[in-house]
Specification:
mainly alpha; 68% helix; 0% strand
Length: 158
């Protein structure tokens, strides 16, 4: 009998897969904000996961990345642009202009990634994150609401 023939094991595997996918959905943009390569690594791990141990390894990797890897400017920009894609077709022209004004400042952010933290978002990105969270709430974009609940907003103050 292999692990897939045992109903109890299949149920456990289904449960951990579902809970790990939910965790991933909540933190994927926070992970991307640390570097696109980390996002791709986790995506690859999901594609190869077959066992309880594989999903537990993904959970450990997610926690490790969030607690050890600092945010990066390129990762933050990419992550914000991906999140903007969820709301960009719903917003008014004024809201679109506000987003564009907030992100214009990104060109002038001094390159100081050596000082970035794994625990806190860089201050230059806080207005964008906070505004996207408000827009996600306003337009009831539950996927982004979960992202802000589990990823970014717990990391906005020192």
């Amino acid at each position: 009998m292999n692990k897939h023939d045992n109903p109890s094991q299949r149920h456990k595997l289904s449960d951990i897969r579902r809970s790990t996918e939910q965790l991933w959905a909540g933190v994927k943009y926070d992970i991307m904000a640390r570097g696109y390569r980390y996002y791709k690594e986790i995506t690859t791990q999901f594609g190869q996961a077959e066992s309880l141990a594989d999903y537990e390894q993904i959970r450990v990797a997610l926690s490790d990345i969030q607690h050890r890897i600092p945010y990066s400017q390129a990762g933050l920009r990419t992550s914000m642009q991906h999140m903007w894609g969820y709301v960009s077709k719903k917003v008014s022209q004024e809201e679109r202009a506000h987003y564009e004004a907030l992100t214009q400042g990104w060109q002038h952010i001094p390159y100081r990634e050596a000082h970035y933290s794994a625990s806190y978002l860089p201050e230059a990105f806080l207005p964008v994150v906070q505004w996207l969270a408000l827009i996600a709430d306003q337009y009831k974009v539950s996927y982004l609401q979960n992202t802000f609940k589990y990823g970014f907003l717990g990391r906005t103050s020192r």
